[in-house]
């Protein structure tokens, strides 16, 4: 297969598609009153499994992108799983606060539980944002995880765009 460098715009579009699709599914669960934390966890785990086993998330598939090692070889399962940590953190940002804060009055000044949970959520959000913001500030368009794992996102040439992996 032939691959070319993926532009930052395509990567950003794939990221937006991924997070909007995951958020839309979670919102549908909420709309249909399936709001227990386990349902949201199942959706998130399913998203991680799909993108880990198929080599492509829905956003990457629609934008015709693929994650490869720096030498254009296929990425090992372990590294594909590690690259999905931001999805797991996204899940954590939605589920952890709701689970830990049930029945608690957080409007009290100095409530230690709300302060700790607020710092946890802020820290996770900052970590996810830093991972993706590095795409815009380095010449290779790599996220922090890409740099650490030696992976790169490339565009699939049009004639190979829909050919399955062998």
Q: How are strands sequenced across the largest beta sheet?
A: 1-3-2
Number of strands: 3
Q: pLDDT average, as an integer? A: 77
Largest sheet: 3 strands, antiparallel
Structural category: mainly alpha
Radius of gyration: 18 Å
Low-confidence stretches: none
Name the helicity range: 55-70%
Distance between the termini: 11 Å
Any idea what the shape is?
globular
Instruction: Give the percentage of residues in beta strands.
Output: 5-15%
Order of helices and strands: EHHHEHHHHE
Instruction: Compute the number of helices.
Output: 7
Features:
166 residues, mainly alpha, 3-stranded antiparallel β-sheet, 7 helices
Descriptive report:
Helix content is 58%, strand content 8%. By secondary structure, the chain is mainly alpha-helical. It has a three-stranded antiparallel sheet. The model has no long low-confidence stretch (mean pLDDT 77).
Q: Strands, helices and their partners?
A:
Layout: E1 3-5, H1 8-31, H2 37-53, H3 58-62, E2 65-69, H4 77-83, H5 85-100, H6 112-133, H7 144-149, E3 151-156
Antiparallel strand pairs: 1-3, 2-3
Helix pairs in contact: 1-2, 2-5, 5-6
